[in-house]
Design goal:
Rossmann fold; Isoleucyl-tRNA Synthetase, Domain 1; 3 domains; five-stranded antiparallel β-sheet; four-stranded parallel β-sheet; 16 strands
Length: 489
């Protein structure tokens, strides 16, 4: 079992804290998933990969983890507030489909993209539409507590009364309610609210609204914030360990989740709140609302106008892991191409491990896993982990050149550690070669065999000619005492 000295940054306390789960040996983690009305884009990949890393590492530390990531298939209105049309219903109306047809289609495409990125499936993946009963029960509990009110068939959370009694609204986002009240405009058709800052727990459906359910208050649909409170409670309990999501969800979504739980269950839902930062383009957040997003399928195919080439799923994963999850990450072709080169270097070193010949003593540093665990224990610091891997690559190259040596037992442990870090912790896998790649590898290996024969026959002219020809094609040959290895420039 790895040492459990994990420290994480808790958005709630705004500082790093020692991770101590509510129940020893077990972790409950809830992460807000996508609203499925369009294809997943690069911005969606970051939270998925961030919490995949956290999921993987918690399991590496031998925690038993229940990871819940929801699918929002109803209730998320166009402007992330209590106005506009349901995002999925709008898509359904425009494409003349059933809303659940839209949700099912884009859920599958989202999961396919996550599979390509080697994002592990969560333990439970609930949908908002599958938990209407639980949401109605929570609305009633908040009404009973006195912190919600009915208005024309809708039910709203009374933010001002809640803040007056608890002084908690803003505990996560550090916002001041007086400023929010002063700066929140009254939305058209929302005169039924007591205060502009109040948010919907249940909305009465207008005649044209497609997705609707019966409730004690009206035929309608649940509020967006309510869904996650209902699903996290059902599968993780009233209190659980980690609540995660993108930084853009911190307010109002996560702030409102806390308020709902305090009023319905008399406790805050999560002990630790973890938020990943955004991917930006020219300094602006990537998102559908700004129209500056690039879908993952466009990235994998290279079909978007901003792309100079296609980038593989593992290149995207590696690109995201090169920045700490709490830092912004700016998109550029140059950064993706650098990630592509760096990833190839890691896998070439990984393959070259099998070419290292053991010796009778070890002269390299064998503390790779200890250094990686130390970095991951410091708030999942993947950039430092990657730096340690590249130092390991340097050592592998020295071993290949026989300027450093390693014993058979140490080589076995070093290989096991390198493999575990690359595959199990970082989730990086070598992508299946296509036919053309297999052809290139086969031809290069054949040329190397011919060159070896030429060198054995002391035909240095042919040997040098073959080496120089490969070099002109961007393939570098390294001669060692145990034979030649090759890599692409």
């Amino acid at each position: 079992m790895a040492e459990k000295n994990l420290i994480i940054y808790n958005t709630l306390s705004r500082k790093k804290e020692i991770f101590e789960p509510l129940t020893a040996g077990y972790v409950g983690m809830y992460v807000c998933g996508p609203t499925v009305y369009g294809d997943a884009h690069l911005g969606h990949a970051r939270p998925a990969i961030t919490f995949d890393i956290i999921f993987r590492y918690l399991r590496f530390l031998d925690y038993k983890v229940r990871y819940v990531r929801n699918i929002t298939d109803v209730g998320h209105l166009e402007n992330d507030a209590d106005e506009g049309e349901d995002k999925i219903a709008k898509k359904a109306r425009l494409e003349q489909l059933e809303p659940m047809e839209v949700a099912q289609y884009y859920t599958k495409r989202y999961l396919d993209a996550m599979d390509a990125l080697n994002v592990l499936r969560p333990s439970i993946q609930p949908t908002a539409s599958g938990h209407i009963i639980e949401q109605i029960e929570i609305v009633q509990a908040i009404l009973d507590s006195g912190y919600a009110y009915q208005s024309n068939g809708s039910v709203y959370f009374d933010v001002v009364k809640y803040q007056s009694d608890t002084n908690k609204y803003g505990v996560l986002s550090n916002r001041v309610i007086e400023d929010m009240v002063a700066n929140t405009r009254e939305l058209d058709g929302q005169q039924e609210k007591h205060n502009a800052t109040d948010f919907a727990l249940w909305k009465k459906a207008s005649p044209e609204h497609i997705m609707r359910w019966a409730s004690p208050w009206s035929i309608g649909f649940p509020g967006w914030h309510l869904e996650c409170t209902a699903m996290s409670r059902k599968y993780l309990g009233e209190q659980f360990d980690i609540h995660g999501g993108g930084l853009d969800l911190l307010f109002p979504h996560h702030e409102s989740e806390i308020a709902q739980s305090v009023c319905a269950f008399h406790c805050e839902p999560a002990k630790y709140w973890i938020h990943n930062n955004m991917i930006t383009i020219d300094g602006k957040k990537m998102g559908k609302s700004l129209g500056n997003f690039i879908t993952l399928q466009e990235i994998f195919s290279g079909s978007h106008a901003l792309l100079q080439q296609a980038y593989s799923p593992m290149t995207i994963r590696f690109f995201i892991l090169q920045a700490h999850y709490r830092s912004t990450l700016d998109f550029s072709n140059e950064a993706l191409q650098a990630a592509e080169r760096g990833l190839k270097k890691l896998f070439e070193a990984f393959k070259n491990l099998k070419h290292i010949k053991p010796s009778d003593k070890t002269t390299i540093d064998l503390d790779l896993m200890d250094k990686v665990v130390e970095a991951m224990n410091d708030d999942f610091n993947t950039p430092v982990v990657i730096a340690h891997l590249f130092e390991a690559v340097r050592q592998i190259n020295l071993l290949l050149e026989t300027t450093q040596t390693i014993t058979a037992d140490d080589l076995l442990h070093f290989t096991e550690d390198f493999t575990a870090i690359l595959h199990s912790i970082l989730g990086l896998t070598e992508e299946a070669n296509d036919t053309s790649q297999q052809l290139v590898e086969g031809l290069v290996n054949l040329i190397l065999d011919l060159r070896t024969q030429a060198r054995t026959a002391k035909d240095w002219k042919t040997s040098d000619q073959l080496r120089d020809t490969l070099s002109e094609l961007g393939i570098t040959i390294k001669d060692g005492k145990d034979g030649a290895t090759w890599s692409r420039d």
